[in-house]
Design goal:
The protein has helices at 41-46, 51-57, 98-111, 127-140, 177-201, 209-223, 232-238, 241-247, 300-315, 360-372, 387-393, 405-417, 451-460, 497-509; strands at residues 3-7, 18-25, 34-36, 67-71, 80-88, 117-121, 166-170, 226-230, 255-261, 269-280, 320-330, 342-344, 350-352, 378-383, 398-402, 422-424, 442-443, 468-473, 479-480, 491-492. It has 513 residues and is α/β, with parallel strands linked by helices. The strands form four sheets. The chain has an eight-stranded mixed β-sheet with strand order 8-9-11-10-14-18-15-16, with helices on both faces. Strands 1, 2, 3, 4, 5, 6 and 7 form a seven-stranded mixed β-sheet that branches. A three-stranded mixed β-sheet has the order 12-13-17.
């Protein structure tokens, strides 16, 4: 992954392949005038104070994420200057939001693929800004090319431009504890988020439940996290009817993985639960053509939980965090669960399966019930759960439901703080009636309208009494099928990792909500 360093050096003397500067629109300007953002004063001076004019001549507008390249001026060690748009210049002061800096740095890092070293002269007024720029660089430079052929016919053609190797953040203070901590945090969180992206992007023939569990075991050993893996025999002995029912049709047996990070100074305990359907065909209720191709991403929730627990361990957060990865492959076969079957869940409740493509809630139900036995202070589950949530909120925003309004608001604020668009959603009691079953305690389907809320209500039934709980439906933002933007690549995005980490940080400090 790209290496980050802090430097107080001036841009002209930096021995790099490119210098990145920010450019913004002047508020209220009728001509679309540009201004060079703070942090790039020495670069602008080298253009005789006319860098903004040059960029305008080249067609730059200053729009967010827009990239314009131009030759560096005489006297610079770097041959290239890359200007990235920051959007409108803030009217009250010159400070840009953390997310604006994050996206700009990400767009620049993507544009510099194939480049070894770059200096980032973006607006950095404090350690938080440095952390945001660092995070944007590390996330924007991400590439997944493990399955691309290195060379063809001996021609030596490489598999694509390699990600940026080194990034120097100008305006940072290398010896300042706050700046160093911000870069270290950005590195830990970004590396684990990118690991989650790798898992989401891995083809399902190479990432079945057993393989995912092995990845979790290796990471746990590396970072001092306790791990327990329940295989199909242990799941059967324990009565995990939901996980077993979903995995019954596959040749790859299901798993339930428990990851436990503990701190000797912890006063709170969080449980994170992730949906880990390593491939979702829909089961007997087979998905129609055109809906199968990206279903390797249906384990994004488990990937997010896994990454968040490891990040918490790397950051040494003073909170106990337990991650539960409910892993199964949903396939049709002679042994698969059928519509009309009744499953006895880990909690003892029975569920009539009306649609085998509503499988995520079944594996989560078992994991939620198990997680509740440890009576954590709060549980947060993460899942690519419903297409209905995508219809409601689109492809970039995830929904948040909870059994406690204050907790839902706190999780929402945490998500917005780290730059993950989210929206609080209700859990209307009247929708529960649609899940009434004449045969079992509850059905896994309810009313068609409000399907995302129905799924949330189903999960709520399996949360232990008196335990605060939130549900993140990341069906939209977990997998980006369009082109890359900002620091978000095409494919797996690592959605919800940063929200979970921030919830853990705020819980550790006692500031959540």
């Amino acid at each position: 992954m790209t290496a980050l360093t802090l430097s107080t050096a001036a841009a002209p003397g930096l021995r790099v392949d490119a210098i990145v500067v920010g450019v913004a629109k002047v508020p209220g300007s009728t001509s679309g005038a540009l201004v060079v953002a703070p942090g790039a004063e020495t670069v602008d001076k080298a253009y005789d104070g006319k860098l903004a004019d040059v960029l305008e001549t080249l067609g730059a507008s200053g729009g967010e994420g827009e990239v314009t390249k131009l030759p560096a001026p005489s006297g610079f060690k770097a041959p290239l200057v890359l200007a990235v748009g920051l959007g409108a210049l803030p009217e009250k002061d010159d400070s840009f939001s953390a997310e604006t800096l994050r996206r700009a740095a990400g767009a620049a890092a993507r544009a510099l693929a194939g480049t070894k070293k770059a200096g980032f002269a973006l607006p950095v007024t404090d350690a938080a800004d440095a952390g945001a720029v660092g995070e944007g660089v590390l996330l924007g430079a991400y590439a997944f090319d493990a399955y691309k052929e290195i060379a063809k016919n001996g021609s030596g053609d490489k598999k694509g431009k390699a990600p940026l190797v080194e990034a120097t953040l100008l305006g940072g203070k290398p010896r300042d504890k706050a700046f160093k901590a911000a870069v270290e945090r950005a590195t830990a969180v970004s590396e684990e988020l990118n690991r989650a992206r790798d898992l989401v992007n891995t083809p399902p023939n190479d990432l079945n439940p057993e393989a995912f569990a092995a990845v979790a075991q290796a990471a746990a050993k590396e970072h001092g996290i306790k791990v327990q893996v329940l295989d199909e025999k242990a799941l059967a002995k324990g009565g995990y009817g939901g996980i077993l029912g979903v995995g019954a049709g596959s040749a790859s047996a299901p798993r339930l993985v428990k990851l436990s990070y503990t701190s000797s100074k912890a006063k709170k305990h969080l449980a994170f639960v992730g949906k880990g359907i390593t491939y979702d065909s829909g089961g007997i209720s087979l998905k129609p053509a055109g809906h199968n191709e990206t279903m390797k991403c249906d384990m994004s929730g488990a990937a997010a939980v896994f990454a968040a627990v490891v990040a918490a361990a790397r950051l040494g957060l003073q909170v106990n965090v337990t991650g539960w990865l409910a892993l199964a492959e949903n396939m049709p076969s002679g042994s698969a669960t059928r519509p009309g079957d009744v499953l006895r869940m880990y909690s003892g409740k029975t569920v009539e399966v009306l649609n085998t493509d509503a499988e995520g809630r079944l594996v989560l139900a078992d994991a939620l019930a198990k997680a509740s036995e440890e009576t954590p202070d709060a549980i947060v589950d993460v899942a690519t759960l419903t297409g209905a949530m995508m219809l409601a909120l689109g492809n970039r925003t995830f929904g948040i439901m909870a059994n406690d309004d204050a907790f839902r608001s706190a999780v929402h604020e945490a998500a917005e703080e780290v730059g993950e668009p989210a929206w609080p959603m209700p859990l209307p009691d009247h929708l529960k009636k649609g899940m009434d079953s004449p045969t079992a305690d509850i059905a896994n389907m309810g009313e068609r309208y409000g399907g995302g809320l129905v799924a949330g209500l189903f999960l709520k039934e399996f949360v232990g009494e008196g335990i605060t709980w939130a549900h993140l439906d990341i069906a939209g933002p977990a997998f980006n099928e369009q082109g890359p933007f900002g620091y978000t690549p095409k494919g797996g995005t690592g959605s919800a990792v940063r929200t979970l980490v921030r919830v853990a940080e705020l819980t550790a400090s006692g500031d959540l909500g």
